[in-house]
Design brief:
By secondary structure, the chain is α+β, with helices and mostly antiparallel strands. The chain has 2 domains: 322 residues, 3-Layer(aba) Sandwich (Peroxisomal Thiolase, Chain A, domain 1); 119 residues, OB fold (Dihydrolipoamide Acetyltransferase, E2P) (Beta Barrel), CATH 2.40.50.840. The chain is 24% helix and 29% strand. Helix 2 links the parallel strand 4 and strand 5. The radius of gyration is 22 Å and the shape is globular.
């Protein structure tokens, strides 16, 4: 049996809501912070997915997105390093189509069935830009999802699948476009979306002899609420069978969208439930999934969708969103321009910067970050082993606030934290409320982007308030 062993999701903390000045919509949508992108959100979802599991069991990683930070440079390898995965794994970016997430599910399952891997991690994340104040912008959202595909402890069996591939220019973004372009809605729906989704669902039904009544839930991609309700009726599904697409609280998260809806469906699923999963983009991918008695094990201890949606902060103004996305000019900091990133130093320091490895002294047992040649406690030289710190929680020892640092999020908060189990680190703080920061405050590690210099995306770890 091949299927989903573990699931994970990530929803950014911030929302644009009816209280957001200048937003002009009664609905909410998730908004990635200025230091988040598709890579950091996919990483966060993968951390949620691998909760309680040993990262070294992963044999391969796939990253699905339409908003890759690089046009030429793999991002799956960055996520793998941040997750502290083994080096002898395969990695691949799946891009340029909205169904890259569900297509990744097929690629991962095929690898496991073929015996070339035992556990393959499928990650997805998107941070897409629509024209400001457009209808599309209202329905978009930011987020990430992750699935661990395996033949061991399978919580959701992949019973069957059917695929449809079509050529149609309906949504597109070239290398010179900042925003998603779109064709006429009626044409897209009637000639693109409906034929592809119905064709995939019909093909799956012929293979499996399953009818709409056989599915407890149907997870179906749609660009907006109207199309989602319409496709449900056309497929003969009741409103109760349709998984809530979370328009109005999350938004359409691109490649991650069907996988995030699947994660939401699996939060309430029972053994024996069948789930219809359909992803869309340049065709459609349809899957018949069956929940097993391992489902509780797959979701235990994970935040998934409900907890992430409940943990939120509302943006005060639409202007914040524009500034975070670089769409609103702002006076730069009155200080020298940042120095170029040293590629040699970044490569040399990847263990401590991306994997967040500290050093544990083999003589006295103290943990230090970054690792030291000579132990600061017992003075032993070259007597340490690496230890992963990214999965540790911590407490703030002291902090400072810099109001002139030129950050997008004034003030820049710098924390000194003591990590659970040992080790002390100096880290910027993300997703913080300055009125709630105090000494002794519990925090967790979060993978973020420090900035982009010379086209190089500089990733690192920050501290952040613990999200329930």
């Amino acid at each position: 049996m091949v299927g989903i062993r573990a699931i994970g999701a990530y929803v950014p903390k911030h929302r644009m809501a009816k209280e957001t000045v200048g937003w002009g919509s009664p609905s909410e949508r998730a908004v990635a912070n200025f230091d988040e992108d598709s890579v950091t959100m996919a990483t966060a979802a993968a951390i949620d997915c691998l909760h309680g599991l040993e990262p070294h069991l992963v044999d391969g990683i796939l990253f699905a997105t339409t908003s890759n930070p690089y046009f030429e440079k793999q991002s799956a390898s960055t996520i793998a390093t941040a997750l502290d995965l083994r080096r002898d794994i395969f990695s691949e970016d799946l891009a340029s189509t909205l169904r890259a997430g569900t297509s990744g599910l097929r690629a991962a399952a095929d690898a496991v069935r073929a015996g070339s891997a035992k556990n393959v991690l499928v990650t997805a994340g998107d941070i897409r830009l629509a024209y400001p104040k457009s209808d599309m912008e209202r329905y978009l959202g930011d987020g990430g999802a992750a699935l661990l595909i395996s033949d061991t402890d399978v919580a959701v069996e992949i019973e069957a699948a059917h695929f449809v591939t079509t050529h149609m220019v309906e949504l597109w973004r070239s290398t010179t476009d900042a925003y998603i372009r779109s064709g006429e809605d009626r044409f897209i729906t009637e000639e693109g979306y409906l034929p592809a989704i119905i064709g995939a669902a019909t093909g799956l039904a012929k293979k499996t002899k399953l009818t709409p009544k056989d599915f407890a839930k149907a997870v179906i991609y749609a660009a907006d609420p109207r199309r989602h309700a319409d496709i449900g009726r056309r497929l003969g599904l009741t409103p109760q069978q349709l998984q809530d697409p979370m328009f109005g609280v999350l938004g359409n998260t691109g490649t991650a969208f069907p996988l995030m809806m699947l994660a939401a469906a699996l939060e309430d699923a029972k053994p024996g439930d069948r789930i219809l999963l359909i992803g869309y983009g340049d065709g459609a991918d349809a899957y018949a999934l069956k929940v097993t008695d391992k489902i509780e094990q797959a979701r235990a201890g994970r935040r998934l969708i409900k907890k992430h949606l409940a943990s939120k902060a509302k943006l005060p103004a639409y202007e914040n969103f524009l500034r975070w996305r670089g769409l609103l000019a702002a006076e730069p900091a009155r200080r020298p321009d940042p120095l170029p990133i040293s590629l040699q130093a970044a490569w040399r320091d990847a263990e401590r910067n991306l994997r967040l490895h500290g050093g544990k002294c083999t003589a006295c047992g103290h943990i230090q970050y970054p690792p030291q040649k000579q132990c600061a406690f017992c003075k032993a030289v070259d007597s340490w082993v690496p230890v992963r710190l990214s999965d540790k929680q911590a407490k703030i020892v002291t902090f400072s606030m810099d109001y002139v640092a030129g950050t997008h999020d004034v003030p820049l908060v710098i924390t000194v934290v003591d990590l659970d189990g040992g080790g002390r680190a100096l880290l910027m703080m993300a997703d913080r409320d300055i009125d709630q920061i105090k000494v002794g405050m519990p925090v967790e590690m979060t993978f973020r982007k420090l900035g982009v210099i010379g086209g190089v995306h500089n990733y690192y770890w920050k501290s952040a308030p613990i999200r329930a």
